[in-house]
């Protein structure tokens, strides 16, 4: 169990903080949102279109659902609001490394610029299954997310920042419930192989662990990209929201009760995603909750947490180098 102070802080933020509706102008900017066809991703896209994003890319596994989402996004605009946004739909299946590399290659070769990647897509499942040789939660939420981020980071985000003298973002959607992750599971050698052993897999806590891994990886990448003056990498918690996350299973009674009592709507949570790509240099490597940079948990800043972070990142890079040799080049040690 995490310290009671961390639990109290998370609950207090959920109950007493109202994240303001984002106000900015994204005119001229191109933004990718993964998992954009429902929940947080869909609602974030509605905000981005309202804020005049020039080119919005819906990166989704199900193209039919993405097409419906596109119509919902357009319909969400006020009648007197001019539609200045081009909305494109692209196939992206994070359970497939080849799909990730194909999508990234297409973006690199066809997009004149890329201002932000909002890595929102993720899954929570309670049954064990493999994807690309690893437990599917790890593949989708962690490995493919950072494969996509690294493939786009240097060739596109940094290039856009330099050419247009602007801040660009790789913003990963995490979760404050990472404080409940079983840290001791990260001490295993050959971590991703060990976590992908069905006979030992703790699926009850796997989602929590995947979100902790995301935050650790964001910190590791951010530390290695301090020399990239234009790119900002952060992790964003949307809070406890009623979204489509539980489409794969029925959540326990206490979760349903908490959602009803203190849960936010998907629209409210999506505000945090948009604030993530407005966080500024001060959010680089940071964990954002309720729209501002906060501490993601004391363990991550501890001596043990830092050691685990570096070891985890070396393992992630090892996996990704096997998928796309050289993917980690250009990052500091």
From TrEMBL:
Lineage top rank: taxon: Eukaryota
Cross-referenced Pfam families: adh_short
Keyword annotations from UniProtKB, A to Z: NADP, Oxidoreductase
Keyword hit for Zinc-finger: no
Record flagged with keyword NADP: yes
GO MF term set: oxidoreductase activity
Family to which this protein belongs: Belongs to the short-chain dehydrogenases/reductases (SDR) family.
Protein name as annotated: Ketoreductase (KR) domain-containing protein
Organism: Zasmidium cellare ATCC 36951
